[in-house]
Amino acid sequence: MRQDLIQKYNIPGPRYTSYPTVPYWNEDGIALDDWKRTMIQAFKESNSEEGISIYIHLPFCENLCTFCGCHKRITKRHDVEEPYIDTVLKEWNLYCELLPERPRIKEIHLGGGTPTFFSATSLSKLINGIMAKAELCDEYEFSFEGHPNNTTEEHLKTLFDLGFRRNSFGVQDYDPKVQNTIKRIQPFEKVKTVTDLSRQIGYTSVSHDLVFGLPHQTKESIIDTIEKTRALKPDRIAFYSYAHVPWIKGNGQRGYDEKDLPSADEKRVLYETGKRMLDELGYVEIGMDHFALKSDNMHEAMVKKSLHRNFMGYTAGKTKLMIGIGMSSISDSWYSFAQNVKTVEEYQEIVNKGEIPLLRGHLLNEEDLVIREHILNIMCHFETSWKEDRLKFPELENCLEYLKEMEKDGLVEISSEGLKLPEGARPFVRNICMAFDLRLLRNKPKTRVFSMTI
What is the pTM of this model? Predict the structure, then answer.
């Protein structure tokens, strides 16, 4: 990767887990009735064929990891588990009362926070409560995020018996100095134990999260981390850039000086070193920041062009409706987004009143829907097309004009009917999406909002 191109294009930009991105959602939010209407519309259009997805946010963590940008609640008190699970099931019941028929579930993902903060008994109560009012699609996928330090054999067996076959563990970096700085201390032996146990029990896909750009991280620590990862050979690896956004995430990311972070050039070396090693180990780059072995269904989804991206990240299949339940969860009806309130207390108070705990959202207009499809195509397939009239829009020529410089630099190939990214341009995928982001182009932020693109 040319260093001059990194310097040229490494600018603040969205990660595109949605379009429009959250800072560009309508200022007035979304009316609850509009969210319900579009949610029911998406359900009617998809439930009988593809089913729906559910994201459940489990926000509690025993310790604060200072690199983390998730919505969480730090506590060592486990008496919070039962009332929170009860509230999540009440919220699910509110949705089931709105739906015209029994939902068919294709995907469930438990995210956090730390889902394995909850006991196996609590998680069993949660999943059984969800399934009491639903059916399963013939091909379904349940996944959860686990902390290597507190994921037990009981967790793994209980969730396996409930239908979970995929899990992911946050590794970040094995270097002790890095771990101490970000307050995420876990020895390799812990990760090995949960990875080996997962496979012994029967999980078909184990994923590890690795991060580059962390404070005090060096080329040597990246090499050591991936060498250790090679010994465990997870089926998937998320290898993504640390997003340093302390102006958004508050005091957690202010626990170290910015001078402790790798420079732009050093960060480029970390990325290139890691990517080269993953390539040598047989991992194929899937979308942005994700890698999978050819035996994993994520690779199969990429080949078949069924790969999808939403607030959970990349998924092997698409559902038009994803219902997010729990504090701060985001739902997606394709036609709209809706986010829940962000504190445990307010979430429980509103749901216990019998109301959906809507904080904000966005109702997509016709232009949004077209741009969303282009950005999803670029993020998932590294190409998009406007051959069909429905994918043309008045400002297309202006968007392509923004890409002229990138075309000269060999980062995008443009034809009369579409565009493609050559393989070497994949680190610049966010920059290319930004050329289609009409809301961003019309109203560039006056203050720092996004992390760096590369």
Answer: 0.93
